Structure formats: structure tokens, C-alpha cells
Amino acid sequence: MTFDMTVFISPGFNLSSTLAFLEPFRALNALESAPRYRFIYVSASGGSVASQQGPTLETEDIDLARSASDIVLISTSDTPEAAFGAPLAKHLRYWQRQDHLLVGLETGAFALADGGCLDAPAAVHPAFQARFAASYASVGLSDTLFTDDGSTLTCAGGAAGLDIAFHILAERHNPDIVRSVRDYMLAPPPRTGTQPLTVGNTQPLGADLPRALQSAIDTMRMALTETRAIPTIAGDTGMSQRQLERLFRSHTGRSPSQYYRMLRLDRAREMVTRGADPMVDIAQACGFQSPVHFSRAYKEQFGRPPMRDRVRSRIG
């Protein structure tokens, strides 16, 4: 049996994230005697669509392409609003009525929310979470790699595109086939959708963290905008502030407040270099009440002020 997968892309889409999602399905085709997945690339008006990285993909006009599809991937750009409009919204609603599996990749959740296709919190790349939260407060955000409500999936993008692809394969194929695809790709074991986002080098890699420390880190990660006091976090984990201090220093080399600030600044850098939000909005989204304080802390952490870092990231 062959499944149709429609891939909607808009100018400036992230080619790396898109290919990370598609590669396990392509690998399965390579392993089978006959292709199991057929890819149909569409855009708002058809033709060549340039990616964020430069290469282009040839697409069909979404209004002229085959309407029936088993899986629909939505891969938009750093300005996902540019993809909004009648053609995409109309097809999204049709695909949802037909129970096609909708997948919003990185900023694709914006298009799904705009089309009224999201009823549960969405996974969005950290650089765009503040904008999504402001635009779709009724939908909400999930600080996880991806979400799955049964018919609509969202993914934070990046390497998580690989994880959500394996998640879909595991739902559709037996474990031996999925294992063969992973072996063929030399891919590591996929992460689950419940795994929280980790931005920057903020997790002691390879460490088996004490439960109390992991709980404190998770609390910090979930409260980057409305920051919580360290004594409160310590109390929530059943420790004194002094015990929490010792635990952080022994496992991370930083105090809890230093680690917390690092989390907030790493999130800020994602928003600065990938997004287009004003610096004052980024400062507030990352728990800095003063833009001056934010700029000073950012420069101390990364060696240049946020606006200069944004300009540098745009020119490579």
C-alpha cells in the first residue's frame, strides 16, 4: 500500500528541518520492494520555492494538486504569517474534515492555528514561542519536542523533525520495520514527544541527574517569562536553598541563579537570531524587566549585544 504525503512549503522554509522529517519515510521507500510513501510538494502558487538555506524545491499549485493525502506536512518560514490566506486555510480545513494527519513543523503551528485546526497546546520552535503565545493564547504552548492529539501534530523543528517522523512511523508500521529504518539511517533512538525542549548547552550531557535537581531545572525551563524565586524552587523540590545550591554547583558548576539566567539567555538568543521580535519583547519573554539589563546580560554571556548578534546571524 502506498501513502500520499503532501508537503506544503512557503518561501524561506527551513530545508534542514523539512528534510529531517522526510528522510525516515524516504529511507523506508529505499528498504521496501515498492515505494510506501509518495511525496507531493505544493505551495500557494506553485513553481520554485527558495528555502532559508538557499536551495529551491519545485512545487505544484496547492489548488491544482491532488487533494486527497494521508499525511500533510506544513513547513513555513521565520515569518509564517506570509503563508496565511485563502488557499492554505481552505485546504487545511478540508484535510482536517477528511481526517488526514496534519503536521505543523517548526512554525507550521502558526498556519494550523490560523486555520482553526489546533485544539490543544502546540510545540513551536523556541525562537517563535513568544509570538505564538501572543497571537494564539487560546491554543497555548507545549514546551516539548512535539505534540500529538491524534489527528494533528506539531513539532518544534530542528532535529526534532526526525523524532516526530519516527513517532508517526511507529504508529503505522511494525517495530521491525521502524528499527530497520533507524539502522539504515544510522540514527540514534528517537526521543519522545513528552521530552522537554532543551535550548543551548543547558543540560549536563551524559549526566544521571538527581531527581530533585532535574525537577528544579524543569521548573526553571517552564518559567522563563514569569521567573520564580530560587527559595520557592527549592521548597517545591523539598530542599532548602542551601541544599539546592550545593546540588547545582556539584552537577553544573553554577549556582541555581546563574543556571537559571543561562536558560533564559539561551532562549533569548534563539529568539534574537532566528526571529524578528523587538528586543523589548524578547527581554520580557525571557524574564528581563529592563531592556538595558537584558542587553548587558546578553553581551556578557555571548560577547556582543543582541541587535549586533541578530545582524551577524543574518549575514552568516
Describe the structure.
The protein is α/β, with parallel strands linked by helices and 316 residues long. Helix content is 46%, strand content 13%. It is built from 13 helices and eight strands. It has an eight-stranded mixed β-sheet with strand order 3-4-2-1-5-6-8-7, with helices on both faces. The relative contact order is 0.10.
CATH topology of the largest domain: Rossmann fold
Q: Which spans have pLDDT < 50 for at least 5 consecutive residues?
A: none
H/I helix tally: 13
What's the level 1 CATH class of the largest domain? Alpha Beta
Number of strands: 8
End-to-end distance = 44 Å
Structural class: alpha/beta
- The CATH superfamily of the largest domain is known as Class I glutamine amidotransferase (GATase) domain
Mean pLDDT across residues: 89
Shape field = globular
Give the strand order, joined by hyphens, for the main sheet.
3-4-2-1-5-6-8-7
Q: Can you summarize the main beta sheet?
A: 8 strands, mixed
Helix fraction?
40-55%
Q: What is the annotated CATH architecture of the largest domain?
A: 3-Layer(aba) Sandwich
Approximately how much beta-strand content do the residues carry? 5-15%
Radius of gyration equals 21 Å
Order of helices and strands: EHEEEEHEHHEEHHHHHHHHH
